[in-house]
Amino acid sequence: MWENRVWDKKNKWWTLDIDTEYVYLIVRSIFDKGEFTKLYKERITSLQVLIDKDIVYSLMREVFFKYTDRLFELLEAKKFDFIRSDYLSFNEY
Fold first, then answer.
1. Pick from 82, 20, 12: which is nearest to 70 by CA?
2. 63/43 Cα distance (integer angstroms)
3. Are 14 and 6 in contact (CB under 8 A)?
């Protein structure tokens, strides 16, 4: 996670790069929070236009395996409230 860190000049600390932050918010929503909060939805949506999709896909593939393609579709359609239950019922491994 911290291999691609970037220096935040404004706050004077290290932070996640955009691609890693995007994946982090998704992973945290599904596995930790159990939902996509309003704040996370807004941040994911704002990062979506900035990410390198190839990098993000590679990172997400390590976590979500064959669900990654479906997850990308749902994220692009902004179907946040459907993602967790869809992921938990996914069985095409």
1. 82
2. 20
3. yes
Query: Alpha helix locations (H) across the chain?
Result: 18-27, 38-48, 53-64, 68-76, 80-89
Angle formed by the axes of helices 68-76 and 38-48, nearest 10°: 100
- The model's pLDDT over 27-78, given as tens digits with 9 standing for 90+, comes to 999 999 999 999 999 999 999 999 999 999 999 999 999 999 999 999 999 9
Q: Please answer whether residues 75 and 60 qualify as being in contact, where contact means their C-beta atoms are separated by less than 8 angstroms.
A: no
- In whole angstroms, give the CA distance from residue 27 to residue 63: 8
Say if CB 1 and CB 16 are below 8 A apart.
yes
pTM listed for this prediction: 0.87
Handedness of CA 68, 58, 65, 20 (dihedral sign): negative
